[in-house]
Design a protein that fits this description.
Elements lengths: L1 H21 L1 H18 L9 E9 L5 H5 L16 H11 L2 H11 L1 H4 L9 H12 E5 L5 E7 L2 H57 L5 H32 L5 H63 L5 E5 L12 H34 L1
Antiparallel strand pairs: 1-3, 1-4, 2-3
Helix pairs in contact: 2-11, 5-8, 8-10, 9-10
Length: 373
């Protein structure tokens, strides 16, 4: 059995060799023609060579300048020097695919003309955007960086487009964030102004109370009551002495006159102090309430001012949203087409196709010969 297998194997091998020898000219001619055609049609006359330029960048983690630089809480503070991770990289890619960046690049480099697209065609933008997406791509690398890859027949233009897209990335993302920051600023600014107006109103109320002689209700009340008690005691003492002096002296006696003057002074003092107490009683409660409310409102005003200053920084300032690792350089060698690969694949394809055709021809002849026999 082993001998028969060896014989069949040798016979099959000889048949294959005989088959190749029989059709060697046809196979060589077809393969050579395919190789020659591939070499010709893959040349710059038929396929314009394209050059590749690449920008490699990492996203930044910072979205809020105030949170990164003005936050007093170190646990909530973002590090503006830290590289972003997957989420930030995906966000940058979404921004890179925005219509604004695409349209700015198309306009700046006149890609409609550069890509030889008929501007009168009804589907000109469809063709333009298709060409744009074929030549300009963005992807996240395995190292969590973002790659901007541009192919173009002009190596300098490819590099310029890649670098411009990287630059526009800052403008685009910062523009989106600034739009939101301006809305937030207007809201906080309105709150800040309303709080300032209210604090000014409370200060005006306090100024009115001060004009009425109320400066510090508690301190004034204690001080006036102390004086009132002393004046009351002096009045009582003067009244008592006056009664004693009247019983032993005449009304024109110097001691009586002096004591009567002291009594009048003490009574005037009491009357003045009573007036002050009445005024404190009238405005003291309102003064205390306004003062306490003003202290609370001033604390709130400080907090709102802090939020306002942070919102203003976010709206008016900007930080780069990326760290560029490699800028695009003008390519010295073409990226596509790879002519040797086209020639090899075309030659291999023609060789296999010719074998299939020749095998079919051989089988047809064999079957025809059997029918004729």
């Amino acid at each position: 059995m082993g001998e028969n297998q060896t014989v069949d194997y040798r016979f099959d091998s000889l048949s294959v060799i005989a088959f190749f020898f029989k059709w060697r000219k046809e196979i060589i001619i077809v393969s050579a023609v395919a190789a020659l055609a591939a070499a010709i049609f893959s040349g710059p006359t038929f396929i314009k060579p394209k050059f590749k330029s690449t920008v490699i960048l990492y996203p930044a983690t910072t979205n809020s300048i105030s949170k990164a630089l003005l936050n007093e809480n170190s646990f909530d503070r973002e590090d503006p020097l830290a590289f972003g991770e997957e989420e930030q990289a995906e966000q940058l890619i979404q921004v890179l695919y925005s219509d604004d960046i695409r349209d700015k690049i198309i306009s700046k480099y006149k890609l409609m003309e550069h890509y030889d697209i008929d501007s009168t065609s009804k589907t000109k933008y469809t063709k333009l955007y298709k060409k744009f997406s074929d030549n300009i791509n963005f992807r996240r690398t395995e190292y969590m960086s973002v790659e901007i890859q541009v192919l173009d027949t002009d190596p300098k233009m490819a590099a310029d487009i890649a670098n411009d897209i990287a630059q526009m990335l800052d403008d685009q993302k910062n523009g989106i964030q600034r739009e939101q920051a301006l809305k937030a600023l207007r809201i906080v600014e309105a709150q800040f102004q309303a709080k300032k107006d209210f604090v000014n109103l409370l200060n005006d109320s306090l100024n009115f109370f001060r004009s009425q002689g109320v400066f510090d209700y508690d301190l004034q009340t204690d001080h006036i009551m102390e004086q009132y008690v002393m004046a009351s005691a002096q009045t009582s003492d003067a009244e008592a002495k006056l009664e004693i002096l009247k019983s032993s002296s005449t009304d024109k006696d110097t001691a009586v006159v002096n004591n009567r003057a002291r009594l009048a002074g003490a009574r005037n003092t009491l009357k003045s102090l009573q007036t002050q107490l009445d005024r404190l009683s009238k405005y003291g409660g309102a003064y205390t309430s306004v003062k306490e409310q003003l202290e609370q409102e001033n604390e709130e005003l400080v907090k709102i001012r802090t939020r306002y200053e942070k919102a203003k920084v976010d709206a008016e300032e900007a930080l780069p949203v990326k760290f560029v690792v490699n800028s695009a350089k003008v390519a010295e060698k073409k990226h596509t087409p790879v002519r040797w690969l086209i020639v090899v694949l075309s030659t291999a394809g023609a060789f296999l196709l010719s074998l299939l055709v020749l095998v079919a021809v051989e089988n047809y002849r064999f079957l025809r010969a059997q029918k004729q026999a």
